Amino acid sequence: MPSSDSSRRASSCPRPSRRGLLTAGLAGLGGLSLVDLLRADANPAALRRSVIHVHLDGGPPQMDTIDMKPDGPAEVRGEFSAIATAVPGIHVCELLPGLARLADRFAFLRAVVGSAGQHDAFQCQSGYDPEHLKSQGGWPAIGSVLSKLHGRPGDTAPLFVDCQQGRGMVRNSARPGFLGPAHGPFRPDLGGLFFRPLEPGMVGELAARGSDFATSLSLSPSLSVDRLGNRRALLKSLDGWKRQVASTDSLGAGDRFHDQAIGILTSGRVAAALDLDSESPAVLARYSMTTPELPAFETADGPRGVLKFLLARRMVEAGVRCVSISLSDFDTHAGNYPRLRQLLPILDAGLSGLVLDLEERGMLDDVIVVVWGEFGRTPKINKDGGRDHWPAVSPALVVGGGIRGGRVLGETDRWGGAALGGAVTFKDVTATIWHCLGIDPQATTLTDVTGRPHPLVDRGRILSELL
What we know:
The protein is built from 19 helices and 16 strands.
């Protein structure tokens, strides 16, 4: 078998031909060496795991969620009280009672540092700054890398599904980068399931950012649940995507997409996963608001946002290896507390419902769930009753997939604005995700369009204290 060096030599030309790229891709097994592939087979149980990304769009406030400061100054501690959890010594916000009951399953990361400070979920999706390797097309999201490493002809479900809704930069953060459109996410239109559509202004925002973003937005136009039930309409829409991908002259994208489209059409697994009404009343009740509904929901998601967590579980059951969902409106520059009184119960009901559901189905060890946002928020409450952007430190939760729960990693000062110890980076968390998926993040490499190999995570450490 030719070594991966042959692929690097074949693809070192600045503007290689399509035929040359195809030859190089076959010779180099898509940028992976034989050692990489053999190493990936070393832990078959971990290789079956999936990952669910839950993005808290806008940046969640650390001191109003899992890093409460009850003894801090009034302008820091805010309106909410801390409550005890099932784990002695761990406290969370009073609006997260489900999380409190299940605290022994979760790892609480209170000092995530190194945010790029941008309203872009890309760092959560990949571990990298959005500018990393931008000249090569950008670094690929975790789901795209999984597609590259584990995708096979005839897959009956896309390995990567992006169900994020919200601002354009969040929805389009799950990018395939230099791996190309063949490994981009499948994006169903969730307008028939959830309240929030993608606003026209966001479409313009994406178009202004360039063709990569605009194309990403339109990968799966009008794929509503109703249309998924109409295979002829679905095929027409999928054919449109295939033509669009083919026009980019991306290596193998057209053929790969054709195989995937046939799998989706013949199996119906993705369509079935989108049919939430097929769940039993008992399961649907689990994914529902347990607190009295407020007079007027002003957040974009509303109470049905809880069902996004159910959708993620159903996608994983359908064979999807990476699912991304989001909850919007954590960008609380004004009215922080009225907004959180609506958002946190949605998060609590969805997340606790998901964990219990996975646990009862014997799936919790097979799925790693990561909950975080692009940055934290200012310790001091501003004149509008809000908290502004705070890239210095942010919170995260990790559960399942081999993670040991009931522990806290990281500590912040009495204001919740600076890490005192136990700080972790986005790359550290990403490296840990890869480890839980049975893949060595430093030894496994991807080859960019110039033929240069890159480790999945550089300068990130596996958080062994959570394993």
